[in-house]
């Protein structure tokens, strides 16, 4: 399957700009009296600029002076600028003036001309990427450039003096030495593994960048083949359609090279729903699927791996849903059974719980707590249950222990990542007996193929 990827044109050099400015100088003098079009300059910051390599008034001040004098009395245009430092436009943005609002003032540079389209064929990509703007970069590329790091801005509605925005580039400890025995675990709610892979995500690239040992996934939305999952003992009938067959886990078992051990748990109650997976290059001692309670094991939400020094529990906790229809089930049934399951494991080894636990525990874990008290994931009942079933029973929130005053999120609603209006729903919880061995608990907010970002844990063994 072939897709079309549009690339932005390279920035023209200074010589080209000067040549273009000289050529357009006479055009500006001839048309100085008419209303400016989109992309023309007039008197904004830097003398006005035409975007995407257009004429710069600073390069030819005599050409723009007459137009500025004639346009001094005109009413400011909504997309122009003229007189002050404006805000960069979203689409191929130029700089406006006359204030700092979104529309700018009047007479400055506008949107500019749309760049010429350059097409190249990329094998294996099913989507046509039409715009490499800021938003498209967020969704299509999945990795943010350093110049665009919205998570470093504190956007919380209830800012406290001691709070600050989390920045993984500056707040992570130095890496362990190569002779230190350790394990690195990543956890990520992918919100549909096939969609993430089709959007351009490479698990090999992420493994090369992060050098992790174990990858825990939630919300894979995959189907298990016949007999592939132990959870099928709880059901007696199967139904696969051709459209769902491509979501079979067999297509993803070699997702990462040299990670030979992968374990998949899929929903059998609702096909293509929920689901978890663990992909490891360290072979576990044993693997367990579910909680061992049929009523809670129909949706493929838990996989437990036993290693030499601890149990790793990959969990996707049920969301209370719209209108909180599953709130009672979540806090009065699931949380209690899950807590008991963890305590039984702790009788033999420490436990690390990784995954989307679907609860913003503290008010600092959600950008606007006052407006979300009735929203799934931040109700009083869910937060109390999280405290009573997990934290009060000896599990440690490793990120909050390491960063008690850092405001950080792991989930953002639609179009809210760019403004950093998010929730912290994903956790590494560790038994108290092993919590002091955690070297680093962190978030990777620049990986944005999903509406969640991956989280990581470095554990000294």
Automatic annotation (TrEMBL):
Site (Interaction with DNA substrate): 452
Keywords of this entry: DNA damage, DNA repair, Hydrolase, Lyase, Magnesium, Manganese, Metal-binding
Residues binding Mg(2+), per UniProt: 189, 219, 356, 358, 451-452
Note accompanying the cofactor annotation: Probably binds two magnesium or manganese ions per subunit.
GO MF entries: DNA binding; DNA-(apurinic or apyrimidinic site) endonuclease activity; double-stranded DNA 3'-5' DNA exonuclease activity; lyase activity; metal ion binding; phosphoric diester hydrolase activity
Composition-biased stretches (Basic and acidic residues): 65-78
Keyword Nucleus listed: no
Compositionally biased region (Gly residues): 41-51, 95-111
GO-annotated cellular components: nucleus
CDD domains: Ape1-like_AP-endo
Any GO BP annotation: base-excision repair
Domain Endonuclease/exonuclease/phosphatase intervals: 186-452
EC number: 3.1.-.-
Family: Belongs to the DNA repair enzymes AP/ExoA family.
Cross-referenced NCBIfam families: exoDNase_III (TIGR00195), xth (TIGR00633)
Name of the protein in question: DNA-(apurinic or apyrimidinic site) endonuclease
